[in-house]
Design goal:
Elements (H helix, E strand, L loop, with lengths): L1 H9 L14 H23 L2 H26 L8 H16 L5 H23 L5 H19 L10 E2 L5 E2 L2 E2 L3 H24 L1 H11 L1 H6 L4 H27 L1 E2 L6 H14 L6 H17 L5 H14 L4 H26 L1
Antiparallel strand pairs: 1-4, 2-3
């Protein structure tokens, strides 16, 4: 007992020690969202509401594309307005082989990965010669080039787009329904989010984060910054291509409109709403943006007039979007809890 008292005297415990920390909303909310998303197919099946599953499946696919863009923007600082190019390529990598009778999903995925990697490498080498506004504009220009290329393919529908004649099939299991696309998109998004969080703490991610702060210093250490940025740009493009594959199977259609500025802009807006630099930012941003869009569409045809100011208000919440706001809220709650505990101990 004397030894215990001596140790306690030599290692004083702070007043807040032993107190349980309040639940962190920044952690509980994303985990809760993933749990709800896992339960949603059961609910839609029980209530016979397949429409809601299709809507949320589209949200998950855009969350995958937003997470892919976040790798380039959140890690490499590459603000791209051309990632719609890779989503569109991925969609046509399903529609074009299906048009010629090829239903193998492995072929579709292989074409999407190969095509997006090649296009991202070629466009990335050129785009990375510029920075800032120049990078934004040149990536946008490449996406517009993709749009005009596919519009000119009259034998494949031109500006009317191309229906997906046969869904992607893997070992006899096809993405022929919204339920199946939802399942694949959900699993892929969970794995991608986990992997993106790990990548951020890996040496590769740390180099990119350091280069965003001071590229010259990282270059002086002997690390080829542009090679790292090119690699993350290619990786981001490939993941967007996979999102395009899922989108084509969900909508059973590939359209040149996928290449437009609107799609790239929506991905940027999702990241701004969710919070750039946060692991769950793309998920929360995509769900918030598309859910709000669906709700407003049901109220008025001029929903964009309402959505615009709401996005501005979210941006005015401060740096970090919704995730940043939630994190600051957690800090205020923890500080208030610590102050309350201190006053209680003094009394």
């Amino acid at each position: 007992m004397q030894k215990t008292k001596k140790n306690m005297a030599s290692n004083p415990v702070s007043p807040a020690a032993g107190q349980k920390k309040a639940l962190q909303i920044a952690v509980v909310l994303p985990v809760g969202l993933f749990i709800l998303l896992a339960i949603l197919p059961i609910w839609t099946s029980a209530t016979d509401q397949p429409y809601y599953l299709t809507v949320v499946a589209r949200m998950l696919i855009y969350a995958i594309a937003a997470t892919a863009l976040h790798l380039a923007l959140g890690l490499g600082g590459l603000a791209s307005l051309g990632h719609a190019l890779f989503v569109g390529i991925g969609a046509y990598c399903v529609a074009l082989p299906a048009f010629h009778g090829q239903s193998s999903g492995w072929v579709h995925i292989a074409w999407a990965i190969g095509s997006c990697a090649l296009v991202a490498a070629l466009t990335g080498v050129i785009s990375l010669r510029t920075t800032g506004l120049g990078f934004l504009m040149i990536t946008l220009a490449f996406a517009q080039m993709g749009y005009f290329i596919f519009v000119s393919l009259k034998q494949y529908g031109g500006d009317d787009g191309l229906p997906v004649a046969i869904p992607s099939t893997f070992f006899g299991w096809s993405l022929s329904s919204a339920n199946r696309v939802y399942l694949v998109a959900y699993v892929f998004l969970v794995l991608l989010t986990w992997w993106a969080a790990r990548l951020r703490k890996a040496p590769f991610g740390m180099v990119l984060l350091a280069a965003e702060q001071n590229a010259r210093r990282v270059q002086a250490l002997g690390l080829p910054v542009n090679r790292y940025r090119l690699l993350v740009y290619i990786l981001s493009g490939v993941l967007c291509g996979i999102a395009g594959v899922l989108l084509a199977n969900l909508s059973t259609y590939a359209h040149p409109g996928t290449f437009t500025l609107q799609v790239s802009g929506e991905l940027i807006v999702m990241l701004v709403i969710g919070g750039i630099g946060y692991t769950f930012g793309p998920l929360i941003g995509a769900l918030s943006f598309l859910l709000l869009e669906e709700l407003l569409k049901g109220v008025t045809d001029h929903w964009m007039v309402i959505l615009g100011p709401i996005i501005v208000l979210v941006a005015l919440l401060g740096r970090g979007g919704l995730c940043g706001y939630i994190e600051r809220w957690d800090k205020r709650r923890n500080n208030a809890s610590s102050a309350s505990n201190s006053r209680g101990d003094r009394s």
